[in-house]
């Protein structure tokens, strides 16, 4: 939709609204409060109400989340002024252009942005207030009835514009969803037809090599390659299923996180594993589980590659004290990691990929020296119902 994406146009419309509302207020000030020596109390009351409602209409641009409250406050204020005009008869000539325009702007914005029930209630209540205001304030005469009909037409224009914009938003969102679905299905076809096909070829050739080779060590190595290929093929197929039917994702299981952590460690005797007792009953989304698995694999691989002299590797997985995030920490005492290595190793693609996965979950990654000779990788991943502190993802590397 043009209005939602074209910022210069939106800025121009906002300036036009301010200019028109301000111009109407200045005109009333000059005509009623300057040219007239003692304007009636009603004119002052209606002018003040119109100015206040105009401010509320402008505020909707800066506080879109408070649109319902702003529109309701404007309607209530206009109704109070109409009741005062009907009961107290404070006098004054027919006016209300600023107030009516501001109300119509708020009503149109409500029809555009609010939920259907809220928008309907504000539109109906606002329409009634706009129509009855001139009659209640200035009496049942033909001129006032004509003005009421004119303002009712303007109210209808405001509602129509709001509904048109709402329909345009819905169409744009539907088009975006359709485009994403087409891209997802195209990616699923590529994975199925190309990647899965090549992995299948690797697995088949590995099985054939096991039959031909008689050496036990080579057969064992080929068996490991076959199992890795079969696991990769299964992962690709699961990904294809998820891409074709995104609503059929596997629900999170309580034990899945612990099993995933233990699988990533894979019985490594050099790793000291610390798991919080509450992990077994923790509700964790599948994408968080897979990210934990990737963080552990990448971190342990980096330790073995860049700190082969590490004597103590500690993996700690626990909820934060406020239970808003899951902390995954991998520490080692290798003096060579971060020192004496080339720069590409420090900022390699593994760390970049790990950071991107954590960023996608609105998490935070901290990588760098820890203690006198240690190195730490700390990932903080949001848990359901909680959010990690609103800070940008942090990456620190050794100098």
From TrEMBL:
Write the record's keywords in alphabetical order, separated by commas.
Answer: ATP-binding, Kinase, Membrane, Nucleotide-binding, Phosphoprotein, Transferase, Transmembrane, Transmembrane helix, Two-component regulatory system
Supply the InterPro entries for this chain.
HATPase_C_sf, HATPase_dom, Sensor_HK_TwoCompSys, Sig_transdc_His_kin_sub3_dim/P
One GO cellular component term of this record is: membrane
One example of the protein's molecular function in GO is: protein dimerization activity
Q: Which residues form the Signal transduction histidine kinase subgroup 3 dimerisation and phosphoacceptor domain?
A: 183-247
Reaction equation(s) it catalyzes: ATP + protein L-histidine = ADP + protein N-phospho-L-histidine
Q: Which residues cross the membrane?
A: 12-30, 42-59, 66-88, 119-136, 142-165
- Pfam families named among the record's database cross-references: HATPase_c (PF02518), HisKA_3 (PF07730)
Query: Which ranges carry the Histidine kinase/HSP90-like ATPase domain?
Result: 291-384
The EC designation for this entry is 2.7.13.3
The name under which this protein is listed is: histidine kinase
Q: What is the native source organism of this protein?
A: Kribbella flavida (strain DSM 17836 / JCM 10339 / NBRC 14399)
